[in-house]
Write a structure and sequence with these properties.
Elements (H helix, E strand, L loop, with lengths): L16 H10 L11 E5 L2 E5 L10 H5 L3 H11 L5 H11 L8 H8 L4 H10 L9 H12 L1 H19 L10 H17 L18
Helix pairs in contact: 1-3, 3-4, 4-6, 6-9, 7-9
Length: about 210
């Protein structure tokens, strides 16, 4: 299913709508309509993120003319770009953020196939292993509120590992995607105090921190 560019406002909580419209106004016209939105909750509000967008990137001076919040919105949207290199480039600008509305864009990338993106996320989510970090709180809360989305992400990570990366990473626990899932699951358990169902291979896993 395709959505219009204007529908991208729905990818963020309502209080950001004016800032999202500013960003959309400076983005180039898309070659194709944004595709296949998926719904998640940010706090108590449902948002609908695009699976892919197809706009060319903006010149640096245009990006710099935006406010910090608007730049973060732009980077979130381009993290859904059809080109994996573009997704990774914009991920680098948002991966350390603990803004609740940024979190689903990062978690969606955990369920994708580019190992370099997974390694970048793992590097930038270094605070996820600390129980006192705002990053752990934000990600734990998001996973706890979106169990179905997290389960689908688990299945996708396992599928990509089995199809493309198992020879390089014979133990799922040392595969960057597998390691990230463990950190996210631990953050959700810490947030709720309840165990979570597992949809990944059993066996040795990488260390996830205290």
């Amino acid at each position: 299913m395709a959505i219009t560019d204007g529908g991208l406002v729905a990818a963020f909580p309502h209080q950001l709508a004016d800032d999202v419209r500013v960003v959309l106004a400076v983005m180039p016209e898309a070659r194709l309509s944004p595709a296949s939105p998926f719904s998640v909750y940010v706090g108590d509000e449902a948002v609908a993120l695009p699976y892919r967008i197809y706009q060319d990137e903006l010149p640096v001076d245009v990006v710099c003319s935006l406010t910090a919040v608007q730049q973060a919105i732009l980077h979130c949207l381009y993290s859904r770009h059809c080109d994996g290199l573009v997704r990774q480039r914009h991920l680098e600008h948002i991966a350390t953020s603990d803004e609740p509305w940024v979190v689903p864009f990062v978690v969606q990338l955990v369920g994708e196939y580019v190992v370099e993106i997974l390694e970048s996320i793992r590097h930038h989510l270094s605070d996820l292993t600390s129980k006192r970090s705002t990053q752990r709180l934000a990600y734990g809360d998001f996973i706890a509120r979106n169990p179905g989305f997290f389960a689908r992400t688990e299945h996708r990570v396992v599928s990509y590992w089995a199809c493309y990366h198992r020879e390089r990473f014979p133990d799922f626990g040392i595969y960057p995607g597998g390691h990230l899932l463990e950190m996210l699951r631990a953050a959700a358990i810490d947030r709720t105090g309840r165990p979570r169902p597992r949809h990944t291979p059993a066996g040795p896993t990488a260390e996830t921190g205290p």
